[in-house]
TrEMBL record:
It comes from Cyclobacterium qasimii M12-11B. One of its GO terms (biological process) is cell division. Belongs to the NAD(P)-dependent epimerase/dehydratase family. SDR39U1 subfamily. Residues 249-295 form the DUF1731 domain. Keywords: Cell cycle, Cell division. This is Cell division inhibitor. Gene3D superfamilies: NAD(P)-binding Rossmann-like Domain. InterPro entries: DUF1731, Epimerase_deHydtase, NAD(P)-bd_dom_sf, SDR39U1.
């Protein structure tokens, strides 16, 4: 039985991939600061202090590295920005040190990254993995994060990095926030592109990367058809049975409420998934209506 070790296992994506891997007969364990709090098998680690339970790495045949403080959880004060960056770098550095030291190394490691790499707003241009990074706060975080996880390759471990788009899920994430107000409405102009992926396809993609030895390097983890903020909000409201008003929430109001974080929802990226599809990966929910139907029914 294959053993898979996950960092960030209790998060939205981590919980989904755990469920999927266990359903196909894998043994899953999490790395956690509070292992006793989970019913899931867990090993102790504390990236801030640089501590990790010795047996964790040698237990694992493969690692899925998702750890990092939520980017949209709190307003971006200077202190919060530091937490967002440090949580990604510290966890990646600790993992690297532990992997380097381990006598038995995992065969593969799948790392999460984000389409924020390309910048807050790349307009209508279709962006690919080889395109340059943006020059804003989030792009800078992602660049440093990928640099920290790139080092795994030095240890001769097959490394896959997924730049993940907007994850659509019933349990939380972007949709839940978009549909929180009594009436759904586009944000800003509503014309900004959102490159989305349904959580079940993302979990399948991570599993696919673990099992396919030809998959290596950086891939965009987004569905085949990016849509605008207005289209996503309107369709999600229809499926949820919620009123939709085609009057965008003004940019200044969002900036007032969210500060610098507003750039994240006012901008957008139209991201290509050609590279991962080129490896033979097939989407089950490549159509937005299919994904929303699955979520709201």
């Amino acid at each position: 039985m294959q053993h898979i070790l996950i960092t960030g296992g209790s998060g939205l994506v981590g919980a989904s991939i755990t469920k999927r891997l266990e359903a196909i007969g894998k043994k899953v364990a999490w790395l956690s600061r509070n292992p006793d709090e989970h019913s899931q098998k867990s090993f102790f680690w504390d990236p801030k202090k640089g501590d990790i339970e010795e047996d964790a790495i040698e237990w694992a045949d493969a690692v899925i590295h998702l750890a990092g403080a939520g980017v949209a959880d709190k307003r971006w004060t200077e202190e919060r920005k530091k937490v967002i960056l440090d949580s990604r770098i510290d966890s990646s550095d600790l993992l690297y040190k532990a992997l380097k030291k381990a006598k038995k190394k995992p065969q593969a490691i799948v790392c999460s990254s984000a389409v924020g790499y390309y910048g807050f707003d790349t307009g209508e241009k279709l962006v690919f993995e080889g395109d340059p990074a943006g020059d804003d706060f989030l792009a800078d975080v992602v660049k440093k994060w990928e640099k920290a996880t790139d080092k795994f390759q030095e240890l001769n471990i097959r490394t896959v990095t997924f730049r993940i788009g907007i994850v659509l899920a019933k349990e939380g994430g972007a949709l839940k926030e978009m549909l929180k107000p009594p009436v759904a409405a586009p944000l800003g102009s509503g014309h900004q592109y959102l490159s989305w992926i349904f959580i079940e396809d993302l979990s399948r993609m991570i599993e696919y990367a673990l099992e396919n030895h030809g998959v290596s390097g950086i891939y965009n983890a987004v569905g085949p058809v990016p849509v605008t903020n207005k289209v996503l909000t309107q369709r999600a409201a229809e499926y949820k049975g919620k009123p939709f008003v085609n009057i965008g929430v003004p940019s200044f109001a969002l900036k007032l409420g969210l500060g610098e974080m507003a750039n994240m929802v006012l901008g957008g990226n139209r991201v290509s998934n050609e590279k991962i599809e080129g490896t033979g990966f097939k989407f089950e929910y490549g159509d937005l209506n299919q994904a929303l139907k699955k979520i709201f029914n």
